[in-house]
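Appendix B, Record 12. Input sequence as logged:
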Amino acid sequence: MALPRLAVTAGEPAGVGPELVARLAATPLAADLVAVTDRDLLARAAERCGLRIILDDDDGSPLAQREPGRLRVRHVPLGAGEIPGQPDPRNARHVLATLAEAADGCMAGRYAAVVTAPLQKSAINEAGIRFSGHTEFFAERAHADVVMMLASPELRVALATTHLPLGAVPAAITRESLARTLRIVHAELRTKFGIAAPRIAVLGLNPHAGEGGHLGREELDTIIPLLDALRAEGMQLLGPLPADTAFVPAQRAHYDAVLAMYHDQALPVLKSEAFDRTVNLTLGLPFIRTSVDHGTALDLAGSGRADPASLIAAAGMAMNLAAQPCNLQARATSASKQIILD
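Logged structural output:
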């Protein structure tokens, strides 16, 4: 039986990503790991980590077994040699080319999922290319509406808004935006995670979920009417819940995922419990995408000391999601379409 093929992008060449990919390759993870990056960059990263990695050209053939320390490579050449800790805008197009190959390969059925190491947004913008992040790039590439979710083995948290100033959050939370987000989360819990009847806890925006309007009216005017409308469609939605009690053990037994209204409302809970086991997922894409939950760590780049735990967790989650029966069927359908097109 063929191993699931995971496209693994190395992110910013001057960051810790290439070293993390080398360390991932050294693990016994039962997946066909295909590094989408520059071959020589990986070789230098492995050397800095004191690892002996065998790099094979990826020919697309099925792989029944992978030896630890062996890695297939889809070579995408650098624009300029890397200097650890010093991002170079000349490598911006290299980074974007790796993302395009991974996304297009997933949509064509060549990969079961994409796993991304961290990149440096500023280096891409300094190259004169407008870029706001992995999530937005993949959404545009796939023409999809997406939602950011962070997940550990114990907790899943989706975000109604992402990287916004706190003062801009209330205006960004509308009935339309909440409906779109909740429908995506509900559908993805069913299709990607195999949860037949998802239960989603929705947090209030204000302290004590507004306390009946005394601490803000967003719950009364926007959140509650929208939740009632979606419940009428058959969704199981709890809330709006006060954020300060939503994560206690007695509450967690009643839901499969949480929708938080803003970035720092719920993520501190998740990261304080499982920082090295938390995975960033992009919901709403026609393929599986997971990522590390940290940045490029430029201060550690080149030292060989970066901790690969988050990338290993991301690859493991991608592999588990790819093994879900619904996702296996989706890949088979995609591959059949590709054969017909070819």
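The chain has two domains: 1-144+285-342, 147-281.
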